[in-house]
């Protein structure tokens, strides 16, 4: 089936059909989310933590994100593919943002790029759109700058802070963003925002009023160890299943059960006899 388009995503919003987005970071992950029928796939810079072992999204590099995004692209046919531009790769100037985003588009084949925050990122978004690169904005909790937000915590919990989130969202819409991700804000903020926006809004920890939802692959499948954010729901326990599988393998090797005869290769009996001579 053909690749979805931004028109298809806008049509879902217009029809009130929820848009399903999930992250993926490698080829088997891409094949899994495609088989599950999601609409959009995000190679999030959450990869820094979920697959690369950094303790925040800040250290991940453009080269690392490009390698992961290329692997995901090779595994996808139908969903739209969004790539996160990592921290430090787009904020300094429009020229820097365009150069980085062009690398992603050329080297990975992603359909859109995502950048975080309002403020200077509004100008970066406008420049990218003018350069012909579709952009996803990201407001509310923006992990790349979590330190200056007081850590990984919900945003917009006072009326003033909520209006700041809404202002950023509207500015990003005005800058030409095709989509918006809203992360970790009270449902009341989302409720106030939604009637003001004509572009599709994907929520994560933003309640149910958005046009769609996104979750991190490793969180929803229970691959990632450790505490999860309040908005995470676990739909599987792959870490436990994987540990069980590897433990069973280790036990069978140690007990001489694996490999069994059926796992081996045969040679003609006369060749085996010659070999023994
Ligand atoms: O990096 C990521 O996974 C994200 C989503 C959680 C929106 O930005
Ligand atoms: Na991200």
TrEMBL record:
Where does this chain mainly localize?
cytoplasm
- Which residues bind 3-methyl-2-oxobutanoate per the record? 45-46, 84, 114
User: In which compartments does the protein localize?
Assistant: Cytoplasm
- Cofactor(s) listed: Mg(2+)
Class of enzymatic activity (EC top level): transferase
Superkingdom classification of source: Bacteria
Q: Which InterPro entries match?
A: Pantoate_hydroxy_MeTrfase, Pyrv/PenolPyrv_kinase-like_dom, Pyrv_kinase-like_dom_sf
The catalytic activity, as recorded, is:
(6R)-5,10-methylene-5,6,7,8-tetrahydrofolate + 3-methyl-2-oxobutanoate + H2O = 2-dehydropantoate + (6S)-5,6,7,8-tetrahydrofolate
What are the UniProt keywords, alphabetically? Cytoplasm, Magnesium, Metal-binding, Pantothenate biosynthesis, Transferase
Please state the Enzyme Commission number of this protein: 2.1.2.11
Question: Any idea which residues are catalytic in this one?
Answer: 183 (proton acceptor)
Q: In which pathway does it act?
A: Cofactor biosynthesis; (R)-pantothenate biosynthesis; (R)-pantoate from 3-methyl-2-oxobutanoate: step 1/2
Residues that bind Mg(2+), according to the entry? 45, 84, 116
The UniProt note on the cofactor reads as follows: Binds 1 Mg(2+) ion per subunit.
Q: How does it assemble?
A: Homodecamer; pentamer of dimers.
* Primary role: Catalyzes the reversible reaction in which hydroxymethyl group from 5,10-methylenetetrahydrofolate is transferred onto alpha-ketoisovalerate to form ketopantoate.
Family, as annotated: Belongs to the PanB family.
What is the protein's name according to its record? 3-methyl-2-oxobutanoate hydroxymethyltransferase
């Amino acid at each position: 089936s053909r690749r979805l388009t931004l028109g298809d995503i806008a049509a879902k919003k217009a029809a009130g059909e929820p848009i399903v987005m999930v992250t993926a970071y490698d080829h088997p992950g891409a094949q899994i989310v495609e088989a599950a029928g999601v609409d959009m796939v995000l190679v999030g810079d959450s990869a820094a933590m979920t697959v690369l072992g950094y303790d925040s999204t800040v250290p991940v590099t453009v080269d690392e994100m490009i390698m992961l995004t290329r692997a995901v692209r090779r595994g996808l046919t139908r969903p739209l593919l969004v790539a996160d531009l990592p921290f430090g790769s787009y904020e300094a100037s429009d020229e820097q943002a365009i150069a980085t985003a062009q690398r992603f588009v050329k080297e990975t084949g992603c359909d859109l790029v995502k950048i975080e925050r309002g403020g200077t990122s509004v100008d970066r978004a406008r420049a990218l759109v003018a350069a012909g690169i579709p952009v996803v904005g990201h407001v509310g909790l923006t992990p790349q700058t979590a330190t200056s937000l007081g850590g990984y915590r919900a945003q917009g919990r006072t009326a003033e802070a909520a209006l700041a989130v809404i202002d950023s969202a509207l500015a990003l819409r005005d800058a030409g963003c095709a989509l918006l991700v809203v992360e970790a804000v009270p449902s009341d903020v989302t409720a106030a925002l939604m009637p003001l926006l004509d572009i599709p809004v994907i929520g994560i920890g933003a309640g149910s009023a958005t046009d769609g939802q996104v979750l991190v692959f490793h969180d929803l499948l229970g691959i990632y160890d450790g505490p999860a954010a309040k908005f995470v729901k676990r739909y599987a326990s792959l870490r436990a299943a994987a540990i069980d599988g590897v433990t069973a393998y280790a036990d069978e090797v140690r007990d001489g059960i694996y490999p069994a005869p059926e796992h081996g290769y045969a040679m003609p009996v006369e060749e085996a006899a010659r070999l023994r001579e």
